[in-house]
Amino acid sequence: MGVANLSYEECRRKRVEENKKRMDALNLPLLSQALLDSSPSKSKSKSSPSKQAKHREMKKQLVVVRRSSRVTKQPGPVYAEVLVNRVAFPKRFSSARDYPDHFFASDEARKNAFERAERLQSVLEPNYPNFIKSMVRSHVSGCFWLGLPSHFCKEHLPTNDGVMTLIDEGGDEYPIIYLARKTGFSGGWKGFSVAHKLADGDAVIFQLIKPTTCKVYIFRVGDSKEDSDSNSS
């Protein structure tokens, strides 16, 4: 029994030594140690540097703001509240006849100008259609838009937008843009109105002497009856 056991132990020892030599040849001890070093138990004990870093305290500091090289040597701007006196600009009169903005023709004056226009209308050539337009503020100031009688436009004026010509009593001609769908004068009417100093209450006769040309007669709201009659004659 003792001899058998001894031979077994010697065989075992020899196998162990052979295995150890093989492991050394393959560097297995070093590999096993490396695996042990990277095991989860050790990785938990070594936390990442970001986790171990202490909380940084943010401190506010006053620093010099970087400025352009063009203004680096110049002093910084100083902002302060100052009182500014408001300058009162004179109002521009909407009417070229230097009437104040609150001027409106009275009903009596407007009626008088319209009646004087009717007297001239009654003696005009009947073959040339015409109509009388009493001026209001929107005609002679602001938007300078002149709406025409729709029935007159449908019967006598072109059906498409175009340029018409207004001829005053002095023979001067003024091109006016006529908008057929809106039945009115647009661009160019302001120039005519300002040039003739039209104002609220004036009565104007438009006499169509050609398909796109109108003769214009103006009756001032501020003129007397006698002066108007002498001028129209």
Automatic annotation (TrEMBL):
<dbReference type="Pfam" id="PF02362">
    <property type="entry name" value="B3"/>
</dbReference>
<feature type="region of interest" description="Disordered">
    <location>
        <begin position="34"/>
        <end position="61"/>
    </location>
</feature>
<keyword id="KW-0238">DNA-binding</keyword>
<dbReference type="GO" id="GO:0003677">
    <property type="term" value="F:DNA binding"/>
</dbReference>
<keyword id="KW-0804">Transcription</keyword>
<protein>
    <submittedName>
        <fullName>B3 domain-containing protein At5g42700-like</fullName>
    </submittedName>
</protein>
<keyword id="KW-0805">Transcription regulation</keyword>
<dbReference type="InterPro" id="IPR044837">
    <property type="entry name" value="REM16-like"/>
</dbReference>
<dbReference type="GO" id="GO:0005634">
    <property type="term" value="C:nucleus"/>
</dbReference>
<dbReference type="InterPro" id="IPR003340">
    <property type="entry name" value="B3_DNA-bd"/>
</dbReference>
<feature type="compositionally biased region" description="Low complexity">
    <location>
        <begin position="34"/>
        <end position="51"/>
    </location>
</feature>
<keyword id="KW-0539">Nucleus</keyword>
<dbReference type="InterPro" id="IPR015300">
    <property type="entry name" value="DNA-bd_pseudobarrel_sf"/>
</dbReference>
<feature type="domain" description="TF-B3">
    <location>
        <begin position="131"/>
        <end position="222"/>
    </location>
</feature>
